[in-house]
Structure formats: structure tokens, C-alpha cells
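Bench notes, bay 3.
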Amino acid sequence: MNAHGISVFYGADTAEGAVAEVRPAVGSQTLVGRFDLIRPIKLLDFRALKSLSERGSIFDPEYATRLTRMTFLRSLNNRISRPVMPTDEEVEYLTTQAVIDFLANGLSVELDGVIFPSSQTNEATTNVVLFHRSSKIVELDLPKGTELSAHTSRSTSEGAERDYYVWEKVPPEEEEVVESANRPPFAGLHLAMNYVTDPLEDKTLHLDMESLSVQIVTAATYATDDYSVLRHRMEMRARSDF
């Protein structure tokens, strides 16, 4: 969906769908969390495009144009949901990236993102992509200077055991110093101005920290369409040399 250098938000409506979309190998550790919307958003549902129809007369000069446009829109859902091998992504995704860029920047109606069925789960789950401008996340409320460290195991008398936790090392609280009358005027205005220049209205998502969990992939299952392989034999014609 996104060209190189332009970040967007990818999500799914279920944890299983989110894990499937990153195509993890067996033994992988995936971190899953729920993001909550903090403002209303407008999404284009590609699934609805499959039911588009166009009425008109073949004698109408504009009918052919409208019919071509409708056929293209109806094919978008299949094109965007079509699975692509990792080695072909650079070429195969160019068309959908161009479409998404147009939807994000070329419409009179401002959209925040798109909805489309997941190809990795055979459309059992739904994916959501939020465009760059609509993918900002509320920052964690951490004191300035906080040091974070993430761990995936802990040492025990029997060796290392899986244990997922994050240490937050916060700086010591400083006592408020009341300055004398020599304090410059408007000294406290800077913090207020910083807050105003980064309003909460610019954000779309909030990560529920309590929902975070690590899912270890222990097996993979596949749904397949089976096709028989037929063998044919024909007798080669004799050739004459002149």
C-alpha cells in the first residue's frame, strides 16, 4: 500500500489476522496489541466495490468510459487482496501504491484509509490501512529522560526462561525551585506553546498497553485449491533433411 519512505498504519480486525499478515515462520515470536481509535475516521471499503454496476446505452458516447471505470473499480478489491510472493512485491505493488496515493491525496473527499479482505486468511479477517496523515499514535506518557529496556527471558536456577517485560528507568523527581523576582517574564510560556503545537486532535490511534501479548508461532496451517496434473503424449513427426 505504501511507497518507500511513506509510512502508513497496517492493522487487522483480529489478532489472528494480524499475525497471519506478517507471515511469521514457525518458531517466530510476534508482539500483538490493540489500537483504539480516538477520533472518527472515514474509510473506503474495497469490498463494496464488487457490487458496482453501470446502466446506460451503448449508443451513449460516455457509457464506454463509465463502463471502463466501473470495471477497474470492481477489480480493485481482487487486485489489492491478491497474495503476492515476497520476491515479486517491488513490481506487483506498484499499481496498488499508485491507487492508494491517489485516494490519499487526489480526492475532494478526505479519506483516512481503506478496508480490504485479508489474502492470508482467505478473507476470514479484514485489514485496515490508515494513510500517513491519519496514522499518528498518541505517545506514551513517560518522564523526560526515561530509559527503556525490553527483555524476552529471565535467569533462573534452571537456566533462562521465557519472560517478557519492559523496564522503565525514570529520572529522580526534582524539587520545584521557586525563583526570585529576577525570573524572566513569560518563563512558563514555553511548555504551553509546545503543547499547543502538538494537539491531540492530530492523533488517530492509542495503543492499549494492557493488551500487549507475545504469540509464539508453533504451527502453520494452509487452505489449498487442488488441481490434477495431467500427462499428454504425442508422436513427433519425422523430419526430412534436404
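Next record in the batch:
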Amino acid sequence: MDINELLTRGVAEVIVESELRQRLATGQVLRLKQGFDPTKPDMHIGHAVGLRKLRTFQEAGHQVVLIVGDWTAQIGDPSGRDETRPRLDAATVRKNAETYMEQFFRVVDRERTEVRWQSEWFGSFTLENALDLAGRFTLAQMLAHETFRRRYDEGAKLTILELMYPMLQGYDSVAISSDVEFGGTDQKFNNLAGRELMGQLGMRPQHVLLVPLIPGTDGRKMGKTFNNTVDITLSPFDMLGKIMSMSDEVLPLYFEVLTDMPLEELAEVRTGLAGGTASPRDLKMRLARDIVSQFHSPADATAAEESFVRQFVQRELPTDIPAHALAAPSGIIDLLVAAGMAASKGEARRLIDGGGVRVDGERVEGYSLTLAPGAGVVVQVGRRKFVRVV
């Protein structure tokens, strides 16, 4: 494995890069820390950026240590949060963790991963331990955290418990003797807390490898907060469709961090897009096939592409439209709700107002349309939701 590519491709920052290069050159097996708080059960392809980098290090012979934040999840990572998170109970955290790990191991090699739960060390933490930990960081250090500083300056609620979060995450590094901690660029402060704490305790401070945050379907940072994610549990068709809906600008970054495209070819893609000689649509389809293949299979990717082309390029209807049976005439509003195409009557009206509802290809212009049982018509909402009235 080329050390230069290992430390630059899909990497935003390495602390300290020169020292980590030297350690990698010796052939020493490093312990790579990746922590997660199971506050929610689903992962998206933004999470996969760091996981793919972890897998690359695994393939070079290094040891991944997955930290399940069953204690810190009950606080919730305050990074980027304008308010205190609600506390989670232990049962919810464990259930989320099980779902999360199933998705984690779609990318990272399970056989070469050591899984550790924070409760192994925090479960026996005493008040003396907690006070010692708190005494190793100053308020000034904590207020260097952008989120903490903003909330403090604005007079917003900022609990002592939240200030403990980076300290607890940092202690994880001590507990498992981390050599390198991985995270997104938004995790820099928390990762550096581990480095600081290890140095104070006479341990070799861990290195930090930060990966970029990728844009979501609306161009903002991909995250559940913005409802702009491509979840890795999506069906092949929906996953491919969401990637096809991305802006052309994401293509070079996505190819770099979410595929194994050779760097020479990646350079050609960048040049082609900048010069207008490459087809963004063709590249986007190639990207979508690659990502779907990773989380499903090549066969699923091919089937999803064929279905997408029929539906959106050739303007054919899908072959597997679900049926919705009517026992009596139904207004379009009631039908959309009953068929699960709208969550409420209010949403159904908004969909119609926005021009997003069609019956046999014709846009529905008002709320008065009534459909009869057995009409056989196809009702469509947006690009991907269809039912046939039977």
C-alpha cells in the first residue's frame, strides 16, 4: 500500500502527518480507533467515507478498534448542536448499536475489527476518576470548541454534562491505547482531546486522521438534520435514484472518497468536467452503479440502472407497481393517505399544489378528483412512488 495515497486520498487533515508517515514506514501494526454514538440506528454514505479509509488501513495490516459509545450516546455529541440533546435510555442505545454495527460491517472487515463498549471502563468509573478527568481540562480549552463558544456567547443552555463529552471520548483513546483516531472534520476538537489526555498521562499521543464531510442531496452537509442523506439501507433503486439526483459538482469528491477509481483516471474526470468534455450524467450513473454495488451487489446495481432508465429516460412505468384496492369511490386526498403516498391530508394537498401528483401521467390540478374502484389507473407521486388502483 502506497503510504502517500493512504494519507492523502479522501483525507482532509492528519495530525501529525510527518510522524504518522514515519510510523507507517516501520511496518508497525497500529491500533486505529473509530468511535460512534448509537443515538440513531441508520448510517448514510457520508459515514462510509471514514469507514472506507479504515478498511484501506486494514488491508495494509492495521487493527481497527470500534468503540461503541454506550455512555456518550446518553449525552449526545454536542458538535454543531444549538441545543442540548434529550437523554437516551440504555435499551434504546443498545438497540441502535446493534443496527449500526450490522451496517458498519458492510464496509469494514468484521474479522479484523476489535469491538469495545465504553461500559467496559466507564461502568466502574468512580467519582474520584470523574473528578480527576475533569481536572485535566480547563474551561478555556472547552470554550475553544466552536459549538460551546457560540452557545456560551449567545447565552444558550450549555450543561456541564456536555462539557464532559470531549473528555469522555478522549478517555476512550486511553482505555484502548489508540495509535490513530479517525473522524470527520467536525470531530477534530473531540479527537484532539484524546491526544491531549494521552500526553498528560505519559502515553504516546494518538495521531488524528480527519476525512471530509460530503454534501447531501441538497448541497448542504449530509446529515439527518437536513433530511438530505443517502442511507445505506435504501433499496438499490432508491439509492441509485438519490445519487442520480445529486448536483454535478459533487462528482470529483464522490469518486475520490466513495470509489476505488485510480488517481490517474480521477484526474482525467476532473479535467473532463472542468473542460466540458465529460458527460456528467454518464459519470453520475457510473458512480451510482459503484455505490449500489458496494452496499448491495453488482447485479442489484444493474437491475436498478435498467429500471431507472425505463422510468426516467425512456419514460416507461415501472414493472412492479404495487396495487391499491378500493371498495368504494375515493377522493384523491383520501387515496394518497390510504395508499401511504402522503403522511397526512395536509401533505397530500401540498403535493397536489406543488404539481407532484399525476394520474395516468396527467397532473392533478385540484382536490376534487374521485377515483372509482377497479379503475386501473396509475397514481404517481414525485418520481418514484406509484400505485395502481384496482
